């Protein structure tokens, strides 16, 4: 994974730290999007109560997808934070 970050950093003309920070920001933006989608689904449910089994299945499916998206974003954030910590540690060792 480190090599992939290094390749992406070179392609984007920035340091590995800048690349990692950019990726973390993208993850946070994605998490906000998923959280917004969850809030929108919650509002929709409040405005139109679920009345049929089909409605319940649709809601359950949508909430499952949102949950999976949030879990994916959190996983990406953890990976990026780990890489950032590793990069900072290596940089401090070289100084």
TrEMBL record:
Do you know which InterPro entries this protein is assigned to? Arc_DNA-bd_dom, Arc_rbn_hlx_hlx, Ribbon_hlx_hlx
GO molecular function terms attached to this record? DNA binding
Show the stretches that span the lipid bilayer. none
Q: Cross-referenced Pfam families, in alphabetical order?
A: Arc
Q: Where is the Arc-like DNA binding domain?
A: 1-29
**Any single GO BP term:** regulation of DNA-templated transcription
Gene3D superfamilies in UniProt: Met repressor-like
- Name of the protein this chain belongs to: Arc-like DNA binding domain-containing protein
- Native species: Methylobacterium pseudosasicola
Q: What is the lineage of its organism?
A: Bacteria, Pseudomonadati, Pseudomonadota, Alphaproteobacteria, Hyphomicrobiales
């Amino acid at each position: 994974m480190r090599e992939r970050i290094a390749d992406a950093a070179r392609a984007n003309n920035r340091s590995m730290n800048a690349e990692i920070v950019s990726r973390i920001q993208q993850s946070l933006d994605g998490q906000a999007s998923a959280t917004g989608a969850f809030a929108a689904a919650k509002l929709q449910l409040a405005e139109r109560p679920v009345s049929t089994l089909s409605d319940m299945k649709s809601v359950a499916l949508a909430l499952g997808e949102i949950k999976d998206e949030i879990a994916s974003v959190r996983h990406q954030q953890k990976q990026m934070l780990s890489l950032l910590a590793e990069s900072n540690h290596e940089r401090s060792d070289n100084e």
